[in-house]
Specification:
The complex is a heterodimer of chains A (1200) and B (335). By secondary structure, chain A is α/β, with parallel strands linked by helices. Chain A has 7 domains: 5-213 and 226-254, Thiamin diphosphate (ThDP)-binding fold, Pyr/PP domains (Rossmann fold), CATH 3.40.50.970; 262-410, Rossmann fold, CATH 3.40.50.920; 424-481 and 493-621, Pyruvate-ferredoxin Oxidoreductase, domain 3 (3-Layer(aba) Sandwich), CATH 3.40.920.10; 635-669, Pyruvate-ferredoxin Oxidoreductase, domain 4; 676-820, Alpha-Beta Plaits, CATH 3.30.70.20; 907-970, no CATH class; 1010-1194, Thiamin diphosphate (ThDP)-binding fold, Pyr/PP domains (Rossmann fold). In chain A, the strands form 7 sheets. Chain A has a 9-stranded mixed sheet, with helices on both faces. Chain A has an 8-stranded mixed sheet with strand order 30-29-31-32-36-35-37-38, with helices on both faces. In chain A, strand 4, helix 4 and strand 5 (108-113) form a beta-alpha-beta unit. In chain A, helix 3 (64-76) runs parallel beside helix 4 and helix 6 packs across helix 10. Chain B has a single domain, classed as TIM Barrel (Alpha-Beta Barrel). Chain B has 12 helices and 12 strands. In chain B, the strands form 3 sheets. Chain B has an 8-stranded parallel beta barrel with strand order 3-4-5-6-7-8-11-12, surrounded by 9 helices. A two-stranded antiparallel ribbon of chain B has the order 1-2. In chain B, strand 5, helix 5 (119-126) and strand 6 (130-135) form a beta-alpha-beta unit. The longest helix of chain B has 18 residues, at 146-163. The chains are: A alpha/beta (1200), B alpha/beta (335).
Chain lengths: 1200, 335
């Protein structure tokens, strides 16, 4: 029987096997491994069985630590158990891994290897994580391709059962976990044939059972621990042979042979590269090419079984003729004599040579490559071989970067390309929203489904959640494609967004004579004249064939809206020549039917129509001999941007980050604020336009805007006519409509280039025209180029108007807040994001004295993912100081801020009192006892601190003055906020959060509650509501969401508020201010709508209103301070439910989809959820009726 | 008293059918309707727009953010993406069929021949006894002629007819220039029944908010006359299709009148929504009383009793109309 082939990514290839050979999966989502867990859950929900005919149990846990604990427990109870993880997640599993290994427990962990967070977090791939756990006692088995992942997942399972050594099977995060490639599938029979049931039963036989009880996990003393630790050694000694045998059995069964150390090259090679993972393929192919021309004989040794490291096998694989070895590590161990694999190779060779088992000690050099998925190319492999050939090659080198600081880097020639001519290489530039990646994944399937045809797809994304750019790298050919690196020379380039021509050099990768497909609003006769000069020049120089299509129009005309994927996919097949055109069209339609049939016949019909229309509208453009354009690509940032932005940020924005040298980098991960303002992303097609006459100046729009693109200022009306700074003719203003401002004007300014076009501002605007139906004070309008130009001028003028004096602004109402400068702006968050308005409000209220600990998640990505940050400063240079430590520790991290502030605050007081004779006792007293709640009080304190600073600077001979200067900042009351999502607060960070709330310290916790893990793709958290569908709650969550608020209220001294800006912005404002003013711990749960809820976020604020109106999300504040005045501390701020729960929930796909999938269950859950809402509301009502004595006392001394 | 009748080739125990409304969305209520004597039940309409919009929304909402970020390929479980069809409706069909012995007539409401008509097949598979195709179209495009509108309606019926073997009724509005021809054409191409009439949605304007009001009003007894007229004209004229009437049934009087004019079955929803499902018993009781009082022993005896037997029905109608107009009396009209 012919083996079945399939097209899948590495994660799927691993999960496919892992699911079939296990009984329990305990997991926690983490990039880039999440897909494996999601698939397991999906299969389990769908009733897919393992090879023994059972449906594995999949359990999502609260953290990787929890997952490892559950794995350990399930293993100890005899179940075949696995987990999937990466990076920090693996580190959280580490304590259990020592236990699992120490107890010789058979299991395989599948890891998509990823960088560890150090100077920065990175979600991308390297071996930092797996190298960090190499002392746990787990065997480490590495795969280098999608096929290997599939095969070694099984070999690892076979080996662990026999050896009893637990295995960590890993592969390169993203490069392998996300590469789509063709592989030969293992049948269930193959898998069955490899797994020995006697070993499975033996595993079960070691389980804890009261029928044959044992104790395990005992505590030893110095007398026995050491010996006991050594008792397991024979199992490790025997493991390599067991793996080797499993590989041999596997080869017999499938014909695919693997070795512990895979050597490729001449038997008499002189120079050998040793490495682990996907880079092995690159190195092998490069060596093969280089060996054709000589003069050196080059070999590559790929390590598969890294632990236990079998010196014997290594030496057997390495040619004895080897004179020089370069060991490449995909990790960095600062301060070590070398990276881990290098040390192992040196040790092995040195020991063998010393013992006489090896003739001559070769020269061994080590180097680092590929950190955080830095592309590792044949050119780099060649550079390493070239280095090896030198008389004195460099040790501890780097390759792939320009290390101009330590001089470690090897030079390489990017023009060195080894790809064969029979491989079609295509690169597609698209937007996340336009479906390019999805279409390309389909193209890979279409092309690789035939025998004898192979394809590979790899996808690169930027870090924005709105307007994200994607680059797809696709290869097609008649032989298996083993090229785990990006395409450097493409025979086909597609630019799916015309606007990219202005910002990205899309033709940089185009080979001579390549085909260039451009989605272009202009026809074949006009298109040429709308290309920038440099693009024209490149087309002429490279003899490119240019094809244009107005894909957006074809998609619109055929009812596909903004989804241009089918149109452009059809173009690719029509002109790339990868398949005969008619055959290609047939295949596309077949794939459309397959992909969309279950989405409905109408979706299929529209896509079919799009295919047919495309072929009619696709045209080739005749290329003139000379350039004719009179315009050039614009600079990526304004020439007025600061030096750092010009030098660093702009390079990263333009896709030139790889070329930045080490010296351009901050040494410790520290970056300036305010960089997002320079990234004019222009992602919106429509932007808001202001009707001055209708506007009631209420401030709702500015408050709701997720991207801070709506700014308000009031100013003296003569500013408009200032002859030195006249207002542009198009600048809009209106008389201030509040009393007491007779000669003042009000302006709303829209930053149209930063707007994402979500339309929330229009929806929240309460001012309707009385004469024109549907017209409000804000309306969306097409973003015409002329509008952008005029708004640029208007923004420049607006920014020259003086910022409103914070002391003059009424902080107590929404109307006033619009005049406070946001210090959080233009983030890359999703259009219509429900989280960011809260962060902007935070920055407006307390930004100049704000310090934020931000848990990993959406808010850390749009808050701090390079190239820019939305956090910014005011005119005085003050602004939020922001840091992200980890996901799990954010509460503790933020508490650390407080501890330092309290400590240094005490130090300031001591030093001030010490220096009181010089400074004046009254002045010192004023500094130490000044109230700092109101803005005017903060201003007064800042003035005192400024005077103090001057005096201290003058006291040059007083060391205490210098000490005081170093901690002076703490004299202005620091506003410390711990920000994160529900995944952090309810799950992974819950223990820490609980502890921090119980500490009594003055920290403010803001939970941006989207009720799912938003950043990793909508997995259920303990905040996910009853009846909602999420990943790991595919058939609707069956447990009600945790009432974190009540838990915090139970302490008695924690300020707790539940807010929803869309339901009552005034209450949100009040809660933020009260929380900040409360000198103990505060917790705010902020309802945040999210794309994972499944509705048009334009109506996000309305949906928040419905959440509250239904009683699902009651608004309340528990303010311990109220007790001081004898008032009831719990205030219920929203009325009894006025609508049914269904009227709120069924607007959202997360609820409605269950009614579609499982109507009966959905109806039952809805009834239960409705009851729960009413019950919960009654509980809150009861709380609201209690006086302060009926809550836990607040015994904090601070508040007397 | 034999109240049985035949509609769409189905034997009904009596002629009162509960027409499409929110009442029949619930299986418990359908059981109640059976208990109070309904002859058959039409399930709530599944709208073309509803089907297409749900498909579009699920497609759109599941694609927001999909394949855009390295961390998240999607934001929903795959099952959400692949369950866009009218699963809930199909389940209602199946459950209603299992719960009662009555004929269960599913209802599809649409205007175009696009992919959604495939839903008819799914409805048949789910076990519906028959299907009512509600062709609700306002020819708002002035370039569409009456002929085209008629042809479109017929083509739509044929598209649905081609998908299923079960009986299909067509519910129509009366605003065709030659309704009789449309009725006959549908009869010719295999309609098993015609339901007279659809009430076209007529919106009002909110003078304060300057917006259209989208409320739907329930029908009243005053609206039965157009139905009576056309029933009387069509009754006995069609080869195959049976006739049902369904606007303005408030009391047994309207039931009787429709039957007299030639209806095989009479539909009601507004009255049941107004007075509760128990009102159906009142209607049946009233019908029986009326028949009894006149010594009719079977419903068949009165069906079409008042149909127009005049060879020139049009002339007769005009005559009736003229006499009606001339005979008008009121406070401002002198006798």
């Amino acid at each position: 029987m012919t083996a079945q082939t399939a097209i899948m990514d590495g994660n799927t290839a691993a999960a496919y096997v892992a699911y079939r050979v296990n009984e329990v999966c305990a997991i926690y989502p983490i990039t880039p491994s999440s897909t494996m867990a999601e698939l397991a859950d999906e299969w389990s929900s769908a009733g897919l069985r393992n090879i023994w005919g059972d449906i594995p149990v999949v359990q999502e846990m609260q953290s990787e630590g929890g997952a490892a604990g559950a794995v350990h427990g399930a293993l100890q109870s005899g179940a075949l158990t696995t987990t999937f993880t990466a990076s920090q997640g693996l580190l959280l599993m580490m304590p259990n891994m020592f236990k699992i290994a120490g107890e010789l427990t058979a299991t395989v962990f599948h890891v998509a290897a990823r960088s560890l967070a150090t100077q920065a977090l990175s979600i991308f791939g390297d071996h930092s994580d797996v190298m960090a756990i190499r002392s746990t006692g787990f065997a480490l088995l590495a795969s280098g391709s999608v096929q290997e992942v599939h095969d070694l997942a099984l070999i690892a399972q076979v080996a662990t059962l026999e050896s009893r050594v637990p295995f960590l099977h890993f592969f390169d995060g993203f490069r392998t976990s996300h590469e789509v490639n063709k592989l030969t599938l293992l049948s269930d029979d193959d898998i069955r044939a490899m797994i020995r049931d006697d070993l499975v039963r033996a595993h079960r036989g070691r389980a804890l059972t009261p029928e044959h009880p044992v104790v395990r996990g005992t505590t030893h003393n110095p007398d026995t621990f050491f010996q006991a630790r050594e008792a397991a050694s024979p199992f490790y000694a025997g493991a390599p042979a067991i793996v080797e045998q499993a590989m041999a059995n596997f080869a017999k069964l499938t014909g695919r042979a693997y070795r512990l150390f895979e050597y490729d090259g001449p038997a008499d090679a002189e120079h050998v590269i040793v490495l682990i993972g996907s880079a092995g393929e690159t190195a092998r192919d490069t060596a093969t090419i280089l060996n054709r021309t000589g003069p050196q004989k080059l070999g590559v040794l790929q390590v598969r079984l890294y632990r236990p490291f079998s010196a014997a096998h290594f030496l057997a694989a390495l040619p004895v003729t080897t004179r020089a070895v370069a060991v490449l590590d995909r990790t960095k161990e600062p301060g070590s004599a070398g990276e881990p694999l290098y040390l192992d190779v040196v040790t092995t060779l040195a020991q063998a040579t010393a013992a006489g088992h090896w003739p001559v000690m070769p020269r061994v050099i080590g180097g680092r490559y590929g950190l955080s998925s830095k592309d590792f190319t044949p050119a780099m492999v060649k550079a390493v071989f070239d280095e090896l050939a030198k008389r004195e090659p460099r040790n501890s080198f780097t390759v792939g970067i320009d290390d101009d600081v330590s001089g470690s880097s090897l030079r390489f020639d990017p023009g060195f390309i080894i790809e064969p001519d029979d491989v079609v290489r295509a690169v597609f530039y698209g937007l996340g929203a336009d479906g390019t990646v999805g279409a390309n994944k389909n193209s890979v399937k279409i092309l690789a489904e035939d025998e004898g045809r192979y394809a590979q797809g790899y996808f690169v994304y930027d870090s924005h959640k709105s307007g994200a750019q994607t680059v797809s790298h696709l290869r097609f050919g008649p032989h298996p494609i083993r090229a785990p690196y990006l395409i450097a020379s493409a025979s086909f380039v597609a630019c799916h967004q015309f606007a990219f021509l202005d910002t990205v050099d899309v033709l940089a990768l185009a080979a001579l004579g390549a085909t260039f497909l451009l989605n272009c609003p202009y026809g074949p006769d006009e298109a040429w004249n709308h290309l920038p000069r440099s693009v024209q020049q490149e087309i002429i120089d490279k003899h490119l064939h240019l094809f244009v299509i107005d894909a957006s129009k074809v998609a619109r005309d055929t009812g596909l809206g903004g989804r241009i994927n089918t149109v452009l996919q059809t173009c690719f097949f029509a002109i790339s020549g990868v398949l005969p055109r008619e055959e290609a069209v047939k295949r596309i339609k077949h794939m459309i039917e397959k992909s969309y049939a279950r989405k409905g016949a109408d979706v299929v019909a529209k896509n079919f129509a799009a295919v047919d229309h495309t072929l009619v509208h696709l045209c080739e453009v005749a290329i003139p001999k000379t350039v004719s354009s009179d315009f050039e690509r614009k600079p990526i940032v304004s020439p007025s941007a600061p030096d750092f932005v010009q030098r660093f940020t702009a390079a990263v924005m333009a896709g030139r980050g790889d070329a930045l040298p080490v010296s351009a980098m901050p040494v410790d991960g520290t970056f300036p604020l305010g960089t997002a303002a320079w990234e004019k992303r222009n992602v919106a097609d429509e932007v808001p336009v202001w009707e001055t006459d209708l506007c009631i100046q209420c401030g709702q729009c500015a408050l709701a805007c997720p991207h801070s693109v709506i700014r308000a200022r009031f100013y003296d009306d003569d500013r408009l006519a200032d002859p030195n700074n006249p207002a542009p003719a198009t600048f809009k203003s209106a008389p201030v409509n509040a009393r007491g401002y007779p000669d003042s004007r009000f302006s709303l300014q829209f930053y149209v280039e930063d707007c994402t076009g979500c339309g929330i501002c229009v929806e929240v605007c309460p001012a309707h025209s009385l004469r024109e139906p549907g017209i409000k004070a804000i309306n969306m309008a097409p973003k015409a180029p002329a509008l952008v130009e005029t708004e640029r001028e208007n923004i420049a003028f607006f920014e020259r108007l003086p910022a409103n004096d914070r002391a003059l602004v009424d902080f107590a109402n929404v109307r006033g807040i619009q005049f406070l400068e946001p210090l959080f702006e233009f983030s890359g968050a999703c259009a219509g994001c429900g989280e960011t308005p809260y962060l902007r409000l935070l920055s407006q209220l307390f930004g100049d004295r704000l310090q934020i600990a931000n848990a990993t998640g959406c808010s850390s990505i749009y808050g701090g993912n390079l190239p820019v940050t939305p956090w910014t400063t005011d005119a005085q240079g003050r602004g939020p100081a922001w840091s992200n430590s980890l996901f799990e520790d954010n509460a503790e991290f933020g508490l650390g801020f407080r501890l330092a502030a309290d400590m240094h605050g005490g130090m300031v007081a001591r030093l001030l009192r010490d220096l009181a004779p010089q400074l004046g006792a009254a002045f010192v007293e004023a500094l130490l006892s000044a109230p700092q709640i109101r803005e005017s009080e903060i201003l007064a304190q800042r003035a005192r601190v400024a005077i103090l600073k001057q005096r201290l600077i003058a006291m040059t001979d007083e060391s205490r003055a210098l000490d005081l200067l170093s901690v002076l900042d703490y004299l202005v009351r620091r506003s410390i906020w711990l920000v994160g999502g529900d995944g952090w607060a309810y799950d992974i960070g819950y223990g820490g959060l609980d502890h921090v709330l119980a500490s009594g310290r003055d920290v403010n916790v803001l939970v941006l509650d989207t009720e799912v893990y938003s950043n990793t793709g909508g997995q259920a958290s303990k905040a996910t509501p009853l009846g909602a569908v999420a990943k790991f709650a595919t058939v609707g969550k069956r447990v009600a969401r945790k009432d974190l608020a009540l838990q915090a209220i139970a302490y008695g001294n924690v300020y707790v508020a539940q807010v929803a800006m869309g339901a009552n912005p005034q209450q949100t404002l009040l809660a933020f201010r009260e929380a900040e003013a409360w000198p103990g711990p505060s917790l705010i749960l902020a309802y945040s709508h999210c794309i994972a809820h499944g509705f048009d976020l334009r109506h996000g604020m309305r949906q928040q209103e419905l959440a509250t109106a239904s009683g699902y999300w009651p608004l309340f504040r528990f303010n311990p301070a109220m007790r001081n005045g004898g008032e009831a501390p719990f205030r219920l701020d929203s009325p009894r439910p006025t609508i049914s729960l269904k009227e709120y929930t069924y607007n959202e796909l997360r609820y409605r989809s269950l009614a579609t999938m499982k109507p009966r269950e959905a109806a039952e859950l809805l009834i239960l959820a409705q009851r729960a809402v009413l019950e919960k509301y009654a509980e809150y009502e009861a709380l609201a009726s209690r006086d302060g004595s009926r809550f836990q006392p607040d015994a904090s001394k601070r508040k007397g | 008293m034999d109240l049985s009748t035949r509609y769409l080739g189905l034997a009904l125990r009596n002629p009162i059918i509960v027409s499409a409304s929110p009442l029949s969305a619930d299986v418990g209520m359908i059981r109640q309707l059976e208990d109070v004597g309904a002859g058959a039940v039409v399930l709530p309409s599944l709208f073309e727009e509803q089907i297409r919009e749900e498909e579009r929304l699920v497609d759109l909402l599941t694609s927001v953010g999909a394949d855009s970020s390295p961390e998240a390929g999607s934001y929903f479980p795959a099952a959400v993406e692949y369950n866009a069809g009218p699963v809930g409706y199909l389940e209602l069909v199946a459950k209603a069929r299992a719960a009662v012995d009555l004929p269960i007539i599913a209802s599809l409401n649409g205007t175009t021949e696009a992919g959604w008509v495939d839903t008819a097949r799914l409805i048949e598979q789910a076990g519906a006894t028959a299907l009512e195709l509600n062709i609700y179209r306002i020819a708002s495009d002035p370039s569409v002629t009456g002929g085209q509108a008629e042809a479109d309606a017929v083509a739509l019926f044929q598209a649905v007819r081609a998908k299923v073997k079960l009986p299909v009724a067509v519910k129509l509005h009366p605003y065709f220039s030659a309704f009789g021809a449309v009725a006959r054409r549908l009869d010719d191409v295999g309609a098993d029944g015609l339901v007279l009439f659809n009430r076209l949605y007529q919106p009002d304007i909110d003078l304060v908010r300057l917006s259209w009001c989208n409320d739907i009003s329930l029908s009243s007894a005053t609206e039965i006359r157009l139905g009576l007229l056309w029933l009387s004209l069509l009754s006995g004229q069609l080869l195959h299709a049976s006739l049902a009437a369904g606007t303005g049934v408030e009391t047994a009087d309207e039931v009787v009148k429709y039957l007299l004019a030639g209806a095989d079955a009479v539909m009601t929803a507004s009255a049941l929504l107004r007075h509760g499902p128990g009102h159906l018993r009142t209607l049946l009781g009233g019908l029986e009383t009326w028949l009894d009082a006149r010594n009719f022993s079977a419903l068949a005896d009165i069906k079409g009793l008042m149909r127009h037997s005049h060879p020139n029905a049009e002339a007769q109608e005009r005559d009736d109309y003229i006499r009606g107009l001339l005979g008008y009396r009121g406070p401002y009209v002198e006798v």
